């Protein structure tokens, strides 16, 4: 009798575990659920497989010239480089960290509660091109490799018929990686106004922030804007935003910075001007020009972005930065980047990489909002 009861109980348990999956809602599927009774296709599941920014399709943008690839309008490309830093290394892992921080983002579920728009589903085709193949043993060679990467990706015909030049958003990498990007944008759009979100000015003379030791030592994440000015890549309508770090020379550094074409909105100016005041100042300064936006994640206070190479206290909040970025809508943004993300210094909540991923989202929105034609050749 005891044995019969046990078998009966076991049979009931077995039936209870034979779960019947309900039909999958079209709203659930993009989150990775599926009808496993009829399909084991996990190609659309999140948190699995290769990690791309915002679960976007991967395209081999660096394929051989005669290889047909999927066309695109906005390309995400990683720059795993951090040997131009003057403080903590680790940003070579930034591209992967930002992609990890973007895992919760998906094109099907990206309708903004602020604007009601989904920038992934408008006219522009956005893809992830993976990382540039960079050596970590020679800075000079690595920067040439990154320059070539930008040239190849931006030279492909865009998906949109009217706006034929793809635009690139770079995931850094230390801030030196902005220099190859500016060289690339110059070929398609000429000199640009740079809106530089950072806690440091990054226009230091290479003889100062390099010690005059060598040309090699003078090319780093604190001198790249000086070099860009020297090469004629940027306009005198450029702007720093969020500056708060000390300078090396009380008079010379700021005078030299102005000579490089920059004006400054300091971090604490936000308290006086408000976010709209900062937005209006930036937009008025760069009006009528093509714009490159570079975001050093250390523009944020370390409370919001601890995972960076040269953290400076007293910075902006993530919300403030995103509000200011979104307020720049209407500018002709021809290129952008998010740099200095060093995941090894992040906390278990991935505070920095989550913030960086959302900054990239805002940069995509700016590019989608205002298409830009390349200059006549």
Automatic annotation (TrEMBL):
<keyword id="KW-0464">Manganese</keyword>
<dbReference type="GO" id="GO:0008295">
    <property type="term" value="P:spermidine biosynthetic process"/>
</dbReference>
<dbReference type="GO" id="GO:0046872">
    <property type="term" value="F:metal ion binding"/>
</dbReference>
<keyword id="KW-0620">Polyamine biosynthesis</keyword>
<feature type="signal peptide">
    <location>
        <begin position="1"/>
        <end position="16"/>
    </location>
</feature>
<keyword id="KW-0732">Signal</keyword>
<feature type="binding site">
    <location>
        <position position="296"/>
    </location>
    <ligand>
        <name>Mn(2+)</name>
    </ligand>
</feature>
<dbReference type="InterPro" id="IPR006035">
    <property type="entry name" value="Ureohydrolase"/>
</dbReference>
<comment type="similarity">
    <text>Belongs to the arginase family.</text>
</comment>
<feature type="binding site">
    <location>
        <position position="175"/>
    </location>
    <ligand>
        <name>Mn(2+)</name>
    </ligand>
</feature>
<dbReference type="GO" id="GO:0008783">
    <property type="term" value="F:agmatinase activity"/>
</dbReference>
<dbReference type="GO" id="GO:0033389">
    <property type="term" value="P:putrescine biosynthetic process from arginine, via agmatine"/>
</dbReference>
<feature type="binding site">
    <location>
        <position position="200"/>
    </location>
    <ligand>
        <name>Mn(2+)</name>
    </ligand>
</feature>
<keyword id="KW-0479">Metal-binding</keyword>
<dbReference type="InterPro" id="IPR023696">
    <property type="entry name" value="Ureohydrolase_dom_sf"/>
</dbReference>
<feature type="binding site">
    <location>
        <position position="198"/>
    </location>
    <ligand>
        <name>Mn(2+)</name>
    </ligand>
</feature>
<keyword id="KW-0378">Hydrolase</keyword>
<dbReference type="Pfam" id="PF00491">
    <property type="entry name" value="Arginase"/>
</dbReference>
<protein>
    <recommendedName>
        <fullName>Agmatinase 1</fullName>
    </recommendedName>
</protein>
<feature type="binding site">
    <location>
        <position position="298"/>
    </location>
    <ligand>
        <name>Mn(2+)</name>
    </ligand>
</feature>
<keyword id="KW-0745">Spermidine biosynthesis</keyword>
<dbReference type="InterPro" id="IPR020855">
    <property type="entry name" value="Ureohydrolase_Mn_BS"/>
</dbReference>
<feature type="binding site">
    <location>
        <position position="202"/>
    </location>
    <ligand>
        <name>Mn(2+)</name>
    </ligand>
</feature>
